[in-house]
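Model the whole thing, not chain by chain.
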Amino acid sequence: MPPTITAFESSPDRGRGLARDMRVRWAFEEVGQPYDVRLVSFSAMKEPAHRALHPFGQIPTYEEGDLVLFESGAIVLHIAVRHGGLLPDDANARARAIAWMFAALDTVEPPIFDRSLVQILERNEPWYEQRLRALDGSIRKRLSDLSGRLGDADWLDGAFSAGDLLMVTVLRRLNSSGILEEYPNLAAYVARGEARPAFKRAFAAQLAIFTAASKG
Ligand code: GTB
């Protein structure tokens, strides 16, 4: 039986592939492994049955036999360790690819994710513009360093890896902000990731859920 992951029954991103199941789907597609998806509602996520899988009552989760995982980064790492194609064989290169995974989630994602939260939750607050400017400053600092490091390479460290997969999913969240375009090599990097056949298959799969839900 293929592993089962969970995803939003009705994603608030309206099929833009911004929820964190997208990176897990993409990882499965890159390594050529089938997977099943169980859709969960916001209320079901907070029920004991789902909390047994995910202590914080969120998606995505991963179930395979006796193994239950949460945290999208841990799930992508697990897929990459189990199957070839997302981590280099050379031990040092593998360690560096894993460092890029952590960099994507620990160093680059926080201000980007906070920006989207602030736009949703704090738009009518008196501090909104100031907070947004501060976050944009933090984001630009990270992007400037990342852009300098990437230079004119296709990927962050040699061949495409799970580090690139996570970094691209993180940067995609800036797609409608205008900020990414200030760093043409990063915009091209995201476009390269999105052009990968595995990304396209993963994107189409999550979009199909939104399309079916909006018809039904
Ligand atoms: N660190 C965890 C991980 O990486 O797996 C974070 C998991 C997480 O934030 N899950 C979110 C969730 O379940 C969905 S992805 N939220 C429901 C809840 O907490 O009750 C975050 C997300 C939500 C919405 C959009 N969007 O609308 O664009 C994008 C991303």
